């Protein structure tokens, strides 16, 4: 008898969930700021740039949407040529995707990155064949957010929507999924602040790819027996 998995479809965030993009994003952000004569950011400050929409982050920092437009253009110039390749796949991710696909679970990417570099990254690292579809942001869309991105996949999901989960590393993934009444499993090896993730109350937190595998591979009869994220990680201090 074929095992009945808890989920029929899984939406994966890209940055901080499938790959570690820090070097490429950090260098490209500081390149853009340098072109505008703005002080460079520290690594700690740059970590917070992974997850939120890029234009919104530049506008918040620079205080001017027109300057943010210029910064995004400079960022993309470097990122598309070099930065997207300054990236690494988290260990265990290819094997996890392969096993999920072999179990006939539908896999998708749902990212707030724009489409061209998303497709290049997935192709460059050999991940694209695992995914049925990629939902990303159009290059001219300033306000692309995770709820909007997830929404574009709903017609494709069809009746499997009721058995779909979002997997990401920030509160933007949690809130984006919740906007569509979809559960979210959040990984803590990415770039979200643990306390923020905990307080946003996702379905579960996974500190490693191994833990994520346990949660995504659970069948319908045993999923409820998996310890909660509170039991696994404790309350934030």
Short description:
This protein is α/β, with parallel strands linked by helices and 237 residues long. The protein has helices at 22-35, 43-47, 54-62, 65-81, 93-102, 115-124, 146-157, 171-178, 194-199, 209-217, 229-233, and strands at residues 9-12, 19-20, 88-89, 106-114, 133-137, 164-168, 184-187, 204-206.
Terminal CA distance? 45 Å
Average pLDDT, all residues: 90
Fraction in helix: 40-55%
Total beta strands = 8
Question: pLDDT below 50 for ≥5 consecutive residues: which ranges?
Answer: 223-234
Q: What can you see in these coordinates?
A:
There is one protein chain. With 237 residues, the chain is α/β, with parallel strands linked by helices. Strand 4 (106-114), helix 6 (115-124) and strand 5 form a beta-alpha-beta unit. Helices cover 44% and strands 14% of the residues. The protein is globular and about 55 Å long. It has helices at 22-35, 43-47, 54-62, 65-81, 93-102, 115-124, 146-157, 171-178, 194-199, 209-217, 229-233, and strands at 9-12, 19-20, 88-89, 106-114, 133-137, 164-168, 184-187, 204-206. Helix 1 packs across helix 4 (65-81), helix 3 crosses helix 4 (65-81) and helix 7 (146-157) crosses helix 8. Residues 223-234 have low confidence and may be disordered. It has eleven helices and eight strands. The protein has a six-stranded parallel beta sheet, sandwiched between helices.
């Amino acid at each position: 008898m074929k095992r009945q998995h808890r989920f029929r479809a899984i939406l994966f965030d890209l940055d901080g969930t499938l790959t570690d993009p820090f070097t490429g994003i950090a260098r490209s952000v500081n390149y853009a700021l340098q072109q505008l004569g703005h002080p460079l950011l520290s690594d700690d400050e740059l970590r917070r740039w992974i997850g939120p929409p890029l234009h919104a982050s530049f506008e918040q920092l620079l205080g001017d949407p027109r300057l943010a437009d210029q910064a995004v253009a400079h960022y993309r110039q470097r990122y598309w040529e070099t930065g997207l390749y300054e990236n690494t796949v988290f260990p265990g991710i290819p094997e996890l995707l392969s096993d999920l696909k072999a179990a006939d679970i539908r896999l998708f990417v749902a990212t707030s990155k724009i489409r061209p570099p998303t497709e290049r990254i997935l192709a460059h690292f050999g991940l694209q064949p695992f995914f049925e579809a990629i939902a990303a942001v159009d290059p001219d869309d300033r306000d692309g957010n995770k709820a909007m991105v997830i929404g574009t996949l709903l017609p494709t999901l069809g009746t499997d929507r009721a058995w779909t989960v979002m997997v990401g590393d920030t509160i933007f993934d949690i809130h984006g999924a919740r906007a569509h009444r979809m559960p979210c499993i959040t990984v803590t090896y990415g770039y979200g602040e643990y306390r923020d993730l905990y307080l946003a109350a996702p379905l579960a937190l996974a500190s490693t790819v191994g833990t994520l595998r346990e949660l995504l591979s659970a069948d319908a009869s045993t999923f409820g027996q998996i310890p909660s994220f509170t039991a696994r990680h404790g309350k934030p201090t």
